[in-house]
Design a protein that fits this description.
Helix content is about 30%, strand content about 0%. It is built from 12 helices and 4 strands, in the order H-H-H-H-H-H-H-H-E-H-E-H-E-E-H-H. The strands form 2 sheets. It has a two-stranded antiparallel ribbon. A two-stranded antiparallel sheet has the order 3-4. A hairpin with a 2-residue loop joins strand 3 and strand 4 (about 290). Helix 1 (about 30-40) runs antiparallel to helix 5. The radius of gyration is 20 Å and the shape is globular. The two termini are about 15 Å apart. It binds heme C (2 copies). One heme C binds near residues 58, 74 and 80.
């Protein structure tokens, strides 16, 4: 069977999305830059023992997360202390990592490459390995007009690939774009509840407001002070970046440490499991008591709505896959 070629369209903002935060003029996504970035994203030479690529922890079929692992597994199967977040809609992110420790997407890849529990490699070795591989000469030439391989080019190309990991084709998006698709009754109920109880933090249409908040997880499961480690401010204790809720069907497990394995557990957490602490977000208290006390019907409706945020197209797009068309 012949593969259908996918037309390269570059970066464009989905009609129901706001303007991106990332300056797409500064590092324009070109067809050749994107292709080079994709090859690098799936390149295990980026790791010390050539065993792990970015794509090992950010798996497309799992919405670019590491399915089935609560915390990430790197070189020598070393464990990280956090759950791999999705590579998704990053052009709309103001900061990166669960604690917001990184501000610039282009500077991001140096962190996993050199992190001992991730790829554990030195940038100079990565460059030497890429230079030794003739296939890259041509790819760098096409993308940048010169065969020279530099760290900056590697980072910019990886960024171009990541910028095109846009998820905007869920049922929710079709409803919002008024294409004729409608929520059913229970999804609509869930949407109304969601707007009442969840959307201040999980703001539409990206389902995050980009802030750091404490949503009441207990700190005994996997002690981690979160944002406080970056700002050294006690008011930031236990705060983590509000994650998007898109593609939750594919990104199990949930939360920064992957402690929940189902949406039922998540909803039970918001209903009865909220741990009080000085930094708990006030939105998660009702009349001074922690928890949103959701009844069974409300939980069912919320779950039905959350399931409208799954985007099958995103996790099956050939151009983002390791086995892309040539
Ligand atoms: C060993 C697993 C592993 C590998 C390999 C890995 N990552 Fe990650 N990635 C993670 C984890 C875990 C986090 C979250 C870390 C944190 O917040 O403390 C993360 C976070 C990210 C983020 C931030 C996303 C956000 O929304 O904040 C980006 C971007 C990213 N990785 C890109 C890459 C790129 C590019 C590569 C390859 C050069 C790569 N990753 C390799 C595990 C991995
Ligand atoms: C006060 C802000 C806030 C409110 C309100 C809130 N959340 Fe969250 N939510 C967060 C934060 C912060 C996290 C990540 C916490 C962590 O991992 O430490 C999160 C995580 C999640 C996750 C896990 C996502 C993932 O990929 O790991 C789901 C699902 C979720 N929330 C659903 C909801 C639902 C449904 C509601 C409404 C009933 C809701 N949230 C209300 C802040 C909030």
């Amino acid at each position: 069977m012949a593969l259908t070629r996918i037309e390269f369209t570059g970066f464009s903002t989905p009609v129901n999305f706001p303007a991106p935060v990332y300056d797409v003029v500064k590092n324009p996504v070109t067809a050749d830059g994107f292709k080079l970035g994709r090859k690098l994203f799936y390149e295990s030479a980026l790791s010390r023992d050539n065993s792990i690529s970015c794509g090992n922890c950010h798996i497309q079929a799992a919405g670019f997360t590491q399915h089935g692992h609560d915390v990430s597994h790197g070189v020598d199967d070393r464990l990280g202390n956090r759950n791999s977040p999705p590579i998704m809609n990053l052009a709309w992110s103001k900061s990166f990592m669960w604690d917001g420790g990184v501000f610039h997407l282009e500077l991001f890849p140096i962190s996993p490459i050199t992190n001992p529990v991730e790829m554990d490699e030195k940038m100079e070795n990565v460059l030497a390995k890429l230079k030794a591989d003739k296939a890259y000469e041509e790819l760098f030439y096409k993308a940048y007009g010169s065969k020279e391989i530099t760290g900056n080019k590697v980072f910019n190309a990886l960024t171009q690939f990541m910028l095109l990991c846009i998820s905007s084709d869920s049922k929710y998006d079709s409803v919002m774009r008024e294409t004729g698709v409608k929520f059913n009754e229970i999804e609509q109920k869930g949407y109304t509840l969601f707007k009442n109880k969840c959307s201040t933090c999980h703001q539409e249409p990206l389902f995050t407001d980009g802030t750091f908040r404490n949503n009441g997880l207990n700190n005994t499961y996997n002690p981690d002070i979160g944002r406080q480690a970056i700002t050294l401010d006690a008011n930031d204790q236990f705060k983590f970046k509000v994650p998007s809720l898109r593609n939750n069907a594919f990104t199990v497990p949930y939360m920064h440490d992957g402690r929940f394995t189902s949406l039922d557990q998540v909803l039970e957490h918001y209903s009865t499991g909220i741990t009080n602490s000085p930094t708990l977000d006030p939105l998660l208290k009702q009349n001074g008591t922690p928890g949103l006390s959701l009844n069974a019907e409300q939980k069912m409706a919320l779950k039905a709505f959350l399931n409208t945020l799954n985007d099958k197209h995103f996790i099956t797009r050939k151009d983002l896959s390791e086995n892309h068309e040539k």
